[in-house]
Amino acid sequence: MENRAFLEMLKPAVRRLQNRSALEIAQNAGIVFDERLSRFEISSLGQEIRIEYPSCKLSEELENWHTLILLHYLDMADGTPLSREWISFGNLRDGMIRGTKFDASAEAGLQKFLAGKSEAEIKKICEKLGADFPETKADLSAGFWLFPRYPVLLNIWLEDDEFPASGKMLVNKSADHYLTVEDAVTAGEVIIAKLYEAASQI
């Protein structure tokens, strides 16, 4: 059923992009369009991806929902500059229900993921997804570039004698210009799943 739902959503996503200017898409999304090879070039979570145009076939295999939100990002991107502010998923446009629910589930999932891990171990896992580590008020913050204009910030508080480790995932205030709240939630789920996957490979 999940694969069927993906395929049903994939077709219109591809059609919308095929009716657009490739150069305009690339400019708005902050990516490269190679006119000679007729393909987009984009980085996502440390992975370089090439997308043929107009077929929109990916040269690298991604998980289904990662592929779908990538195409939705290309379609929705309007070039809005990144903000200096970070917000919860619940504060996204139309995020009161879906976004707030994800905020809670993400914190639960991150607490489980972080349990028993040292700061060095966490950084090593995040680095496998191309993360950088900005200075914030958290014990550790990891910035993930899901797409060039769609960063996701993970603030982490390490465990101590009184409290277990915890984490909170935030998106840039400009996020509504690049993905809907439904896709934003999927993006958060993709990142958490990839953190678990990266941890299993270390």
Order of strands, main sheet, comes to 4-7-6-5
Overall mean pLDDT stands at 96
Q: State the helical fraction.
A: 40-55%
Helix count from the secondary structure assignment: 6
Order of helices and strands: HHEEEHEHHEEEH
- Largest β sheet strand count, sense and barrel closure: 4 strands, antiparallel
Q: Could you name the ranges where pLDDT drops below 50 across 5 or more consecutive residues?
A: none
- What structural class is derived from the secondary structure elements? alpha+beta
Q: What distance lies between the first and last C-alpha atoms, to the nearest angstrom?
A: 32 Å
Total strands: 7
Percent strand: 15-25%
- Our Rg estimate from Cα atoms comes to 17 Å
Broad shape: globular
User: Looking at the chains present, what oligomeric state does this protein adopt?
Assistant: single chain
Task: Throw out a few tags for this protein.
6 helices, 202 residues, alpha+beta, 7 strands
Word description of this protein:
The protein has helices at residues 2-18, 22-29, 64-76, 98-114, 119-127, 181-200; strands at 32-34, 39-44, 47-52, 86-87, 140-147, 150-157, 166-172. It has 202 residues and is of the alpha+beta class. The strands form 2 sheets. Strands 4-7-6-5 form a 4-stranded antiparallel sheet. Strand 1 and strand 2 form a beta hairpin. The longest helix is centred in the C-terminal third of the chain and has 20 residues, at 181-200. The model has no long low-confidence stretch (mean pLDDT 96).
